[in-house]
């Protein structure tokens, strides 16, 4: 874990750099100057040299889309490969911070540089803000040496990029890493077609929770258009309304036309095990893939990275079952 000598600070917007407007807090440019001024007030910190890059326009992370994930990944690649940076710090809004961290975990497979993401619950400069603590804490972690791969830094903690979720809004300690049963990824090596250098294309995905009374029409509506993949949030260990023939038929029809269907548990500490209940077995028979103990953020990001790489449905099914970076937790 060598110390970073040159870090790319990539600013995407978010609460950390927001300014007050007549309509409320809004993303603002010019954060580099504020960062430099604040660093001068903290001469005792051991920080890496850094260069600043801003994705324009800066956005509220509530407006984050998968196309932004691709732009962030491209900026990171440029910083590392062309500008000589050996580490990256992404400044990001907290609403979708865990989604971006998970997606980047798969879009940057094989990148031999640490990538940290951080943000804040309150804007920099506001009394009681966590902005500078999170930002300079992340830079300090990179200076001290961080492992290659994607992680979140929040409230004095490093969190697994593909296992983290935002759990609250009232506390500065808003993120947590969800439990895992093992601590090392099962995959051995990164397949060339999933390497971070390979181009990705945007694909349309959907997420749908099961709930008492869900109808086949609602499922078909979620799968309308050019949706290529669906993350279905099932009950408990991967069950659902298995006595609804029309709902099961809608799933089977989507699978037959090439839509990749992924099942995860709605429970934060849940784990899909289709064979445990007959209700789960019937869902699996419709073509659903077992998401193990993956989070919603990880399942969505992984599906995006696999389908965006141009893999066939069969190839996606194979690699979705492989633990690529510690995401599956089974």
Automatic annotation (TrEMBL):
Catalytic residues (UniProt): 15, 94
Origin superkingdom: Bacteria
One term under GO cellular component: cytosol
Gene3D superfamilies: 3.40.50.40, L-asparaginase, N-terminal domain
Residue span(s) of domain L-asparaginase N-terminal: 8-178
UniProt GO molecular function: asparaginase activity
Residues annotated as domain Asparaginase/glutaminase C-terminal: 206-320
SMART domains xrefs: Asparaginase (SM00870)
Biological processes, Gene Ontology terms: aspartate family amino acid metabolic process
Alphabetized PANTHER family for the sequence: 60 KDA LYSOPHOSPHOLIPASE (PTHR11707:SF28), L-ASPARAGINASE (PTHR11707)
Family note: Belongs to the asparaginase 1 family.
Protein name: asparaginase
Species, as recorded: Stutzerimonas degradans
Lineage of origin: Bacteria, Pseudomonadati, Pseudomonadota, Gammaproteobacteria, Pseudomonadales
């Amino acid at each position: 874990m060598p110390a970073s000598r040159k870090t790319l600070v990539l600013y995407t917007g978010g609460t950390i750099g927001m300014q007050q407007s007549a309509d409320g807090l809004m993303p603002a440019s010019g954060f580099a100057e504020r960062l430099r001024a604040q660093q001068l007030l903290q001469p005792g910190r051991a920080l890496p040299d850094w260069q600043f890059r801003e994705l324009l326009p800066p956005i509220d992370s509530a407006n984050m889309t998968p196309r932004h994930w691709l732009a962030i990944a491209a900026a990171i690649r440029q910083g590392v490969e062309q500008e000589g940076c050996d580490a990256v710090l992404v400044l990001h809004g907290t609403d979708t911070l865990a989604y971006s961290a998970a997606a980047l975990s798969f879009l940057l497979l094989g990148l031999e540089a640490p990538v940290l993401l951080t943000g804040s619950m309150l804007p920099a400069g506001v009394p009681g803000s966590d902005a500078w603590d999170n930002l300079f804490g992340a830079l300090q972690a990179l200076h001290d040496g961080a492992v290659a791969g994607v992680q979140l830094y929040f409230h004095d903690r490093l969190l697994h990029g593909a296992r983290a979720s935002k759990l609250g809004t009232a506390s500065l300690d808003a993120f947590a890493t969800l439990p895992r049963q093992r601590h090392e990824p099962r995959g051995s090596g990164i397949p060339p077609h999933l390497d971070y250098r390979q181009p990705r294309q945007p694909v349309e995905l959907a997420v749908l929770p099961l709930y008492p009374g869900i109808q086949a029409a609602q499922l078909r509506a979620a799968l309308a258009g050019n949706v290529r993949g669906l993350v279905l949030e099932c009950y408990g260990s991967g069950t659902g309304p298995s006595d609804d023939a029309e709902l099961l038929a809608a799933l089977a029809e989507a699978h037959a036309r090439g839509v990749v269907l992924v099942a995860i548990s709605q429970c934060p500490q849940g784990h899909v095990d289709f064979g445990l209940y007959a209700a789960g077995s019937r869902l699996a028979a419709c073509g659903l893939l077992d998401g193990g103990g993956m989070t919603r953020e990880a399942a969505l990001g992984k599906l995006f990275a696999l389908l965006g790489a141009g893999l066939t449905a069969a190839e996606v099914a194979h690699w979705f079952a492989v633990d690529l970076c510690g995401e599956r937790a089974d």
